Amino acid sequence: MCAGSALRQEYQRCLEREFRRGRAGTCSDPSFGERLRQRLRQEPALLGALQDDAAALLSQGLRGRPDLGLALQGLASAFRLLELAAVNLYLFPWRKEFGTVQTFSGAYVHLLRPALPEADLVRSFGRLGYEQRDPQCLAIARPLPGPELAAAACGFFACRLECEILAEVVLRLQPRRLRAEDLLEARQLAGDVEACVEMLQRLGTQHEAAAGCGDSMDIYQETPTSPRDVGGEDAARPAPWRDPSSPRRAQDMPRRGWDCCSDGERRQEPLPSVSSPDPDPSSHLFLEQERSRAGGPLSAVAVGSRSSPGPGDPQDLSPAAAPPQEAPELPCYQLHSCLRRGTLPSYCCTTCQQLHAGACAAGQACRSRHRGQELRSERQQRLWLQRTEVDMLLADGSGPWA
Hints:
Largest sheet: 4 strands, mixed
Helix content: 40-55%
Radius of gyration: 28 Å
Structural class: mainly alpha
Order of helices and strands: HHHHHEHHEEHHHHEEEHEH
C-alpha cells in the first residue's frame, strides 16, 4: 500500500472517530495533523500523492500576489472550506442543503474567490461531484462513494498544511520579499524545509549582489533629453524577439553592471542581440533568416559607388571602405533541464549558454562561477524563453521544443 492510500484511510478513520464523539467537521485530530505536517515538511512530493493538482492550485493562488504571507493565509482558508464541503457530503449524504453551492454566498465570494481563480474552484468542486448549472449555482450531478469523498477531503487538508508550511518559510525569510515561483521551485527542489530556507537565502543574496553591481548612471536607463536622442537613421534597431509595438523598458535592456565590477567579483556581461528589423519570431521567414545569418557573412550595404585607390592615392581608412567581414556565429542558447513546460527562466548564463530556473542548483553554481544576467521582469523572461526555443529549433531542425 502506497503512503498516499494509507494516509487517506487514516484520515477517514479520524473523521469517523470524531463523528462518533459528536463532532462533525474538518479533521481536528492533533496527532494525525502533526504527523502529516512533519511528513510534508520532509517529503514535499507527498502532497502530489494526496492531491494531484496541488502544485497547480498553489501556483495559481500565489501568482501575482505581492504579499505571499497574506496570500497563503487566504489559500489555507479556502482549502479548509473545500475540505469542509467534502466532509459534509461524506458524513451527511442525505442532507439536500449540501447538494447545492451558491456562488453568490458570502463564504464563496469572500473566502474562495479572492484565493483561487474561478476555473480552479469549479474544478475543485467537480472532484466532489458538483457541476456548474448556471453562473450562480453548483449542484451535485453524480453522488460519489464515501471513500472517494474522504480522499478528496484529505487532499484539501494536505494543501492547507502545505500553505502553513510555506507561510513558515516566508516568515523565516522576512523582511526579504520572495517571488512565488522561486518559493514553489525551492520547495520542490530542496526537499525538506531547512534546505528550502537555505536555498532561498542563497538565491536572495546572489540577487542582491547582482543588483548592487550596477552604476548609478546607466546609459540603458537614462531618459532621453530630446526626441533627437531616440530617432534618426543611426538609432539602434531592436532585437528580433522584441515586440515592435510596445515601448522599451529599462528592465528589458542589457545592463552595465559588468562595467563596474572588479576582477575578483562575479561580472555580468551584455547578452548578445541581433541587429535586424522586427520579424515575427514564430514565422517561417524569421527562422530562415536566422539560419542564413547564423552560418554565413553579413550582407554589405553599399553607400555609393567607390573606386579602389590607385598606387599613388591616399588610402581610405574609414569603416565604410573596409571590406566586408564574416560575422561571428550567434550563440545558441539551451534550456536547462530544470525548466519544465510553463516555467519561466530567471537567469541566463552566457558562459554555458543556458537558461535556468530561479532555484536550480546548476544555476546557483553558474551564478558564482560564470558570467550571465538575472532576468528580473516577466517580459524579459518570456522574451529570452522565446529566443532560446528558436535557437533550439534551429539547432535541431526537427520541430518546436516539447
